[in-house]
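=== RUN LOG ===
request id: a7f3
mode: sequence -> structure
chains: 1
length: 359
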Amino acid sequence: MTVEISWFGALCDDDYEFLGHPDPKLRTSYEHNRNIVLTADRYGYDNILLPSGYELGIETIAFAGALAPQVKHMHLLTAVRMGEMWVPQLARQLVTLDEVLDGRLTINIISSDIPGEKLPSEPRYQRTLEWMQVLRLLLDGQPVDYHGEFLDLELDAPRIARETSRPAPPFYFGGFSDAAKDVAAKEADVFLTWPDTVAGVAGTVDEMRGRAAEHGRELVYGLRAHVIVRETEAEAKAAARRLVSKLDDEEGAAIRAKSLDSVSKGVSRQSELREGSDDEGYVEENLWTGVGRARSGAGAALVGDPDQIVAKIEAYREVGVEAFIFSGYPHAAECDLFARHVLDRVGHAPLRPRWSRSG
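=== RESULT ===
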């Protein structure tokens, strides 16, 4: 069985040589992030996550539109925040982007607060659910007659969506609260989890299989993690230590707090992993939690030599993971190292949709 291997586009001011110490040469910009994306495309990665922020980085859909004609093979996993843009216009933008990419668009659904707004978790996820349901209809070229708590719409899909034969791009979605998992079970295509022990990921996959089955659905499961691979384990561990060698804990806490999801249940789980790790930050063999000292969200890395990284990927595959989104610091350099040491050793290809235009 093949898996999808993706890289990370780092549009959110998240590129470092030394974690927590911004380097002007690695600052998010069109040229810098274009280099990361095209490096991943050149090496044959299947997909690349283009994250979404407000205070941090640059705008995601505009960047994806600029890169779409330049990316030759890879899919673009473009992050969009539900509620941030009026859904009919969002659908029109995304279906146009998919047209430019010749069907190679994938969509990362984000349910964080909209900048300047604080909405309790339950209504926020209800809004996310409604946006996903209507967005899928419009991307699938279907008319909308929808009357919900946040959306009240009757309209046709835009012409470009009606006239294409492609199904709606797949929705990748992650979240760890009960409300988030319920949304994923009902409407996601790929459920993304953050770094955890192999047993922890297995438990998440089993739980989500049960939740999806209650709605007559099956999901694909993905893991978002960092990676540090070197020719030897000693070199990989040394690179991990070097990455955090200049990090001050107060500085790291301030970086984590900048994220809109800095107090989510998923972030709390990343903190639990760090607290349960050994003196070097390893919570289990080849799973290092040091990245999370200065990063909200995915807070652990696979660390080891090529054989160890391949074995760790295989362990996650055995418990149901079919898609991996990796990143490393600096992103272009680590993208190169992972490609040379690991990428061709794991059977990989873009995910093939299990959904159709007719639903």
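=== NOTES ===
Residues 121-139 form the longest helix (19 residues).
The two ends are 25 Å apart (CA to CA).
=== END ===
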